[in-house]
Specification:
This protein is α+β, with helices and mostly antiparallel strands. The chain has a domain of about 80 residues. It has eight helices and five strands. Strands 4-3-2-1-5 form a five-stranded antiparallel sheet, with helices on one face. A hairpin with a 6-residue loop joins strand 1 and strand 2. Helix 2 packs across helix 4. The protein is flat and about 65 Å long. The two termini are about 25 Å apart.
Amino acid sequence: MTDDDDHAKRGPVAQLRTSFLTGLAVIAPVVLTLWVVWTAITWIDGLVLTLIPRSYRPEALLGWDVTGLGVIMFLVITVLIGTFAKGLIGRTLIGFGERIVERMPVVRTIYNAVKQIADTILSRKQPTFDRACLVEYPRRGIWAVAFISARARGEVAEQLDNGGETISVFLPTTPNPTSGFLLFVPRADVIELDMNVEDAAKLVISAGLVYPDGRLAPRVKGQPEAVTKG
């Protein structure tokens, strides 16, 4: 039976339903992307423009809002602050401010945690998530997608000394990968995947519905075969 014969046997309602779903599959990514971008722009605009006196805002000077002005100002200010912070005066002032923060018990804890995370992610002074892997969670025989972050160090590595290397992995939740669990796993129990972090994130977010293209990895005894797109 050809595709034309199958299409002819389907009723008009089924054909409309198929066309609707096809159109929805095309429109949904575009609409969601535009919505996320627009939401981010308006949020930054609202955050930055509130710091400007009302008489100097675009609606007061021009008579209408200028969408995206706050984003442009945020980028310019961020670049200027970054340039200033790299200089001698900037480093001196930042050091002076951090010494003041160190004397504030609660603020000190929050600031140091946020600063360390920002330095790790933005400055890339330390390795970030660069490899996807499989770990047995929540019990043996059940595998979950995770991301390798770094080798365990300090007291954690000492307490978990099992004769081999221990690594820290981030196990994201589905469909929201921004939350999850930090696991310390022996490297021998981790299966590294060929897929990149972006493809692994798509797999997690889609709850296993979106599989990346990839080659069939060689099977190791005691480990599951890699799943490829059919």
